[in-house]
Structure formats: C-alpha cells, structure tokens
C-alpha cells in the first residue's frame, strides 16, 4: 500500500510541541472543519497522514540518522532494556543511548526526538478528533466513526510510549506530562500519571466501541484488535488489572484473525520465507507495507539493524542479542538459529537469520535499494505472551500455561516443562519468552518495566558491560528535554 500524503503531510509538519507556532501555510483546524462538512473523506486522509508520520525520516524533528519514527524508538528502547547490545560502533549513532547519556542528560537530542515525535502524533490525532466533534462526540456516519476510533487509538499509543519513557513507574500522584486533548498553541503544565492513564483508558475504550465492525484496508491501519492490545498494555503498565489484561488479550487471540508464526518462517535463508519482513505474514497484527515510493535506505530500521541492507548494520554499527539472554535459549529452540553463533566473528549474535531484508542474497549488504522490506509494529505472539503473564499474575495458572504452551509448541520439541510452572515461576517464564520471541521488535523495555525487572548487561556490550540496572533507575527514564523546559514556563516551574 502506498501511503497517501497530500494535505495530511502538511498538517503533520506542524510539530505539536509546546512553544511551536503554527505557520500560515499549514492547513488550519478551521480549514479541516470546513472541509469535513463538505467532504467526509478528509478526516480519513488526515488519519492516513498520521500513519505516514510513523515512518518518516526526521519525524522527531532532528537530522539524526536515528530519527525515523516508531521503529527508531524501538531501537532506542531495546538498547535501554539491555537485551539489544551495541557490540561495535564505528559511526557512533547509538553511543549516547547505550551508555545512558541520553536518559541522564536532558540536553541530549535523543530524548528530544522521542518527546517531539510522540507529541506530533498527539497533535495530529487531536486535530482529527476536534474536527469530528470533539472528545465527547460520537459521529453518526461509519466513516467518521472509524476515523475517530483510529485517532483516539493513535493518541493513546503516543501517550503510552511517553509514560513509559518519561516516568520510572506508575505512581498515580506524580506529575509527569502535559496532557493535550485539544488543538491549541497554549502551553500546559504537567498532569498527574493518574490523569494521563485515565485518558488513555478512556480513549481506548471509546476506540474499541467506535471501531466495532471496521474492516481495514491494510495492516498499517489500527483496528479494534489494536485498540484492545494497547488497552491491555496500558493496564499492564499501570498494574493491578491482570484479569482485564487477560480478557482483552484473549479476545484478540480468539478473533482468529492472526496465527502464530510457524517454524519454517522463523529462521530466514536467501530463498526461504521470512516472517519478519513482510506485512502479509499471518502473525502480524499491525505493520506497514514499505514500497519504493517510501524511499527508505540508510536511515531506517533495516539500515540500522539488518546486515543484509548495506547500511550501518552491515558497515560497523552492530546490534546483537545480549550474550546472557542468548545463552538462556535452549539448543533445541528454533529461535536460537536466528542469531549468528560464530563467537570468533565481529558479527557474533547479530540477528542475521531473524531479520533479512527482501531480495538479499548470500552476501552481506546485498539487499536492493530502496528498501522495501516491511515494518512490523505488533504480532499476535505478543498477545499470547501478555495473556500468559497476566493470567499467571492473577493466579490463573491453567490459562497461563495454555497460552504459553500454544506459542512454545512451535518453538521447542517438548513443552512438558511448562506443566510444572506456577505462580511467579510462570510469570518469569512468560517474561523470558517475551524477551526471546520479540527480540529486536521494540517490546523488551515495555516488558522490563511491566515486570519491575533488572537489566543485567552481559560481556558483549561495548558500554556498561556487566552492570545491573533496575527498571526504575534514573538511567531507564528520559528527562523532559531542555527546549521544552525553556519554552514551556509551566514545565520549568514544575521542574524547579
């Protein structure tokens, strides 16, 4: 699918970051309102523009080659979690993430990329919501209803990632983020975590209702399943909602819309099927079909991670699995074959056989340009693992084992060990399998915080090797960026 930009592209250039002015050449909220009255397809076009923002180079407002939308955020958070090791750094793009400078120093640009990117998504979603009647409105026609549901899901998605990056852990009374729900150039002070989480929950519950009956045209579009999944993530991060998390994830599983990746799609070859580079994969819940018109190359997730893509992952910025995590994968687990196991090579534990760009041959750096390998945002395996984790926490060991077994039966020859797990041991196993199954997909940091775990870096990291970092350490939380503090007087006052 080629993403339509058009008028949507212009509005997405309006940053949505406090302190930014609204240039006169950009389409205004009033213009969108007028257009909506005469053409109900306009809100849908603006929602399409939000999806475009998720893959746009520079969408975090910088020229950094780490700034390319959600998948850029995924690399940053995977590195923070410690599960993705920076094992060689010729170009130094990720040094400040890997050595915790970004998270500890509010003047570093990487924390500004995250802040700016997600608030741009929020601003754009607010524009759609406002012009479909506002936060408390329910459109009467289906097209507007579906656009509203998507916009509310995307607003909640952006606030969710902000809460994970800018708060150590859920503390209801802590003032954490400005909560923008309208299109306005007025600065706002921080809202409490309770208020931000309540709004995310409201948005997602509204979206689940609004998206009922919606049949999307492509997987880059969020549907009711994605709204349910994000509500499960929000409730899981908040804590104390295990039964509802289990219910929501089970509903997505029971939809029958997706299937767990089979063994023959887990380890790639030059001629074989790969379950991680094609949006048509039956396991992908949310992702985007990258086409030549998207012009992705050096500056992209594939360029940064994949050695087949003739870019940083090939030329000297190596991202690999943490050695200790790799050693936890049993020898008979098919996923062990996703990682290059020659310890004498500089490419040791790169994901050479998990992520392999389309069109690559047996030679590293052989993938054609522009890159047309797709971006995955969410897979059904996440729902099985989150369901197992939540059920185990809720004391429903039988259901937890069932979900965990459904996945592991396609990964190892014998799953009988799962029958002996209960309670915290079952939670721990779900967490471990989340780290292994979803490595490199941007989920390790979320799981680390949700499980209140400690990151322990192995010897193959070039920074902080051998160190232990609890989930709520200062290193695991971004600081509000310097320019936001300077431009928003409310934030400056609250930070004193």
From TrEMBL:
Annotated compartments: Cell outer membrane
Domain RagB/SusD: 353-489
UniProt keyword list: Cell outer membrane, Membrane, Signal
Record-annotated SusD-like N-terminal domain positions: 78-232
Entry-linked Pfam families: SusD-like_3, SusD_RagB
Highest taxon of source: Bacteria
Family: Belongs to the SusD family.
Protein name, as recorded: RagB/SusD family nutrient uptake outer membrane protein
Phylogenetic classification of the source organism: Bacteria, Pseudomonadati, Bacteroidota, Flavobacteriia, Flavobacteriales
């Amino acid at each position: 699918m080629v993403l339509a930009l058009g008028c949507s592209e212009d509005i997405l250039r309006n940053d949505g970051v406090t302190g930014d002015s609204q240039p006169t050449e950009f389409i205004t909220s009033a213009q969108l309102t007028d257009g909506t009255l005469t053409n109900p397809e306009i809100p849908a076009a603006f929602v399409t523009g939000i999806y475009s923002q998720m893959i746009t180079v520079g969408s975090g407002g910088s020229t950094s080659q780490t700034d390319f939308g959600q998948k850029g955020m995924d690399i940053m958070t995977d590195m923070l979690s410690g599960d993705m090791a920076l094992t060689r750094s010729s170009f130094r793009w990720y040094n400040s993430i890997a050595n915790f400078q970004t998270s500890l120093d509010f003047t570093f640009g990487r924390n500004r990329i995250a802040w700016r990117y997600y608030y741009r998504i929020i601003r754009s979603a607010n524009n759609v919501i406002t012009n479909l009647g506002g936060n408390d409105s329910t459109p009467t026609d289906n097209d507007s209803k579906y656009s509203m549901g998507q916009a509310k899901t995307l607003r909640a998605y952006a606030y969710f990632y902000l809460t994970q990056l800018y708060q150590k852990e859920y503390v209801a009374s802590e003032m954490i983020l400005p909560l923008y729900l309208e299109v306005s150039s007025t600065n706002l002070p921080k809202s409490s975590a309770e208020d931000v989480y309540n709004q995310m929950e409201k948005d997602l519950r509204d979206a689940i209702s609004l998206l009922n009956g919606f049949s999307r045209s492509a997987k880059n579009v969020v549907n009711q399943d994605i709204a349910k999944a994000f509500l499960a993530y929000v409730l899981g991060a908040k804590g104390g909602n295990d039964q509802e998390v289990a219910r929501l994830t089970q509903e997505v599983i029971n939809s029958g819309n997706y299937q767990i990746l089979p063994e023959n799609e887990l380890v790639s070859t030059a001629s074989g099927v790969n379950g991680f580079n094609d949006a048509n994969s039956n396991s992908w819940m949310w992702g985007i079909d990258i086409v030549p018109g998207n012009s992705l190359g050096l500056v992209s997730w594939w360029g940064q991670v994949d050695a087949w893509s003739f870019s940083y992952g090939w030329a000297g910025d190596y991202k690999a699995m943490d050695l200790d995590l790799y050693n936890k994968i049993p020898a008979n687990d098919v996923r062990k074959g996703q990682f290059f196991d020659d310890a004498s090579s500089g490419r040791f534990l790169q994901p050479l056989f998990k992520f392999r760009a389309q069109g690559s041959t047996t030679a590293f750096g052989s993938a054609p340009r522009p890159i047309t390998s797709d971006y995955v945002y969410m897979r059904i395996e996440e729902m099985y693992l989150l369901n197992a984790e939540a059920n185990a926490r809720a004391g429903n060991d039988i259901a937890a084992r069932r979900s965990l077994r459904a996945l592991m039966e396609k990964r190892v020859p014998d799953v009988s060990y799962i029958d002996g797990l209960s309670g915290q041991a079952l939670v721990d196993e779900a967490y471990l399998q989340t780290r292994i199954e979803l490595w490199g997909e941007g989920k390790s940091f979320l799981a680390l915080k949700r499980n209140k775990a400690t990151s322990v870096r192995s010897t193959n990291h070039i920074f902080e090797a051998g160190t232990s970092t609890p989930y709520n350490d200062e290193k695991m939380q971004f600081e509000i960026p310097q320019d936001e503090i300077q431009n928003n007087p409310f934030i400056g006052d609250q930070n004193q």
